[in-house]
Amino acid sequence: MSHLLPKHCLFCLEKTQSHFDLCDHCIKSLTLNNHCCQRCASPLEASLFIARERNITLCGNCLSHHYHYDRVYSPFVYSEEMRYLIKKLKYQKKIHFAQALAKLFLQKIHDTNDFQLPQTIIPMPMHPKRLRQRGFNQALELSRFFASHYKLPLNYTSLIRSRYTDLQAGMNAIERQKNVQKAFLVKKPINYEHIALIDDVMTTGSTVNEAAKILKQSGIKKVDIWIIARAGLEN
Ligand SMILES: [Zn+2]
Ligand SMILES: [Zn+2]
After folding, report:
1. Tens digits of per-residue pLDDT, 102-156?
2. 215: domain range?
3. Considering every ligand atom, which ligand is closest to the CA of 47?
4. Is residue 222 within 8 Å of residue 69, measured between CB atoms?
5. β-pair partners for 202
6. Which of 56, 68, 182, 227 could bridge 213 with an S-S bond, Cβ 3.0-4.6 Å?
7. Assigned domain for 3 exists
């Protein structure tokens, strides 16, 4: 029973008293996404154009494109350290890493200006075929923790993945956009106006944008995206 053993940092394995499952030193080694676009959370160093529009700082992509989601919250950059933690969760089925990542997210998310709680939590769905391969959906594991923390309903049956899509690693932005077209379906009505869609990592945002489009078409007014770590295409 792991809770009877002394606690060890998930990253460096040193003993720790921290409530975060990571020692203070390793928490400090994670790169915060403090300077980011206030719509898509893209780290602004990576953006060519920055503009302030109605007091919001936007990246070049958000100035020139319309995205279906309202706001992406992603407190961390997908740095080498974050990649290690997320890959342990996804590919080595270390499900307790989901709780550690969710705790880190929750500690930082309230630092964001005008953060508003949604009315329900929806995990990014996984196609049944991929779910069989992986054995669990990491977005659902994160969502369980968020829903219980905020005492919000967790809805993992309404938004489904209706089409199997190829893994997107190695694809460019346009290929990713094509890959996820019509990949989602709202199977059962979601009786809320403001939802948060949960995922672990966001790269170009084509997947969350396609899901947000379907959610908006089903009548939802506000779709926030909660992501642990924001990556660029080079990741
Ligand atoms: Zn450590
Ligand atoms: Zn942006």
Report:
1. 999 999 987 776 789 999 999 999 999 999 988 999 999 999 999 999 999 999 9
2. 8-230
3. 2
4. no
5. 230
6. 68
7. no
